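Lecture notes, unit on protein representations.

Consider one protein chain, 111 amino acids long.
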Amino acid sequence: MSKIAYTIGRTTAYEKAIREPGGTKKLGRRPDDDPPYDGGWVWPTIQQANDFRTGLMEMNFPNWKAQDFSVYELDLPNSWDVDVSPYPVAPGNTVNGAHFLLNDAQIIRAV
């Protein structure tokens, strides 16, 4: 399976972070955090991530504006099968088609 996944992020924050020495990572699952963190949202294709960014995001998160976010390519440490939840976020959840990132992944670039 692929070593690539796609996520969305606030453009100003992500662009600054990926220019730092060593870049930055999208956080994976943190079950021991209080409260536990399920992991960042990821999609298997640019199109799916962008569809969420330009459509469902503003519908479900009124304070988030599509123009403030970009789609980013992630380099998974192993593969989609190992680093990403096997099923999309629970049905009925507002994050249509997103999976949870299980292991931290390097943010490569905006796409």
